[in-house]
Design brief:
Elements lengths: L10 H7 L2 E5 L6 E2 L2 E15 L4 E13 L7 E7 L2 E2 L4 E3 L10 E11 L3 E11 L3 E3 L4 E7 L3
Antiparallel strand pairs: 1-11, 2-10, 3-9, 4-8, 4-10, 4-11, 5-6, 5-7, 5-9
Length: 146
């Protein structure tokens, strides 16, 4: 929403005009599969929006490290307020190979419908024999409407 000539601008409007960035750096412990929809330790961001319709842009990076030959898919996904959103960051080891490793990213753009306190986190599903190493992360930027 534009600010019009002669309009009295409030402090709340000015606060919402600048994006706010958050980063959950390295996770605190490695995870070992098999796991389904497991929270990644340390990769959680509490954030607050002031108005309905805030937009978030996020990027996750999942550091998948197989320890043995693996046949199944492993994935990471952004969750907001207890629900998975958007696409998965997917990893699958090539057939018959060992020693593969991949840092798989995924990007998101989501609208937060209601103002207030929210939580973003990284959740993973790991195939047997796959670790999620401590180099995984979440970057989140909140854009508010004026």
């Amino acid at each position: 929403m534009p600010i019009l000539a002669g309009q009295i601008v409030t402090a709340g409007q000015l606060n919402r005009m600048q994006p706010i960035a958050y980063r959950a750096g390295q996770q605190t412990n490695a995870l070992t599969g098999p796991l389904t929809n497991a929270d990644v330790p340390g990769i959680i961001i509490p954030f607050t929006t002031q108005a309905p319709g805030a937009v978030i842009a996020a990027e996750i990076v999942c550091d998948f490290d197989p320890t043995t030959t693996v046949g199944g898919l492993s994935s990471g996904r952004l969750w907001i307020d207890g629900s998975g959103v958007g696409e998965f960051a997917v990893y699958q080891q090539g057939p018959g190979t060992t020693g593969d490793r991949g840092s798989t990213p995924q990007t998101y753009r989501e609208v937060i419908p209601s103002p207030g306190a929210h939580t973003a986190k990284l959740v993973v599903t790991l195939a047997a024999g796959v670790n999620l190493n401590v180099y995984s992360s979440l970057l989140l930027t909140v854009y508010e409407v004026v």
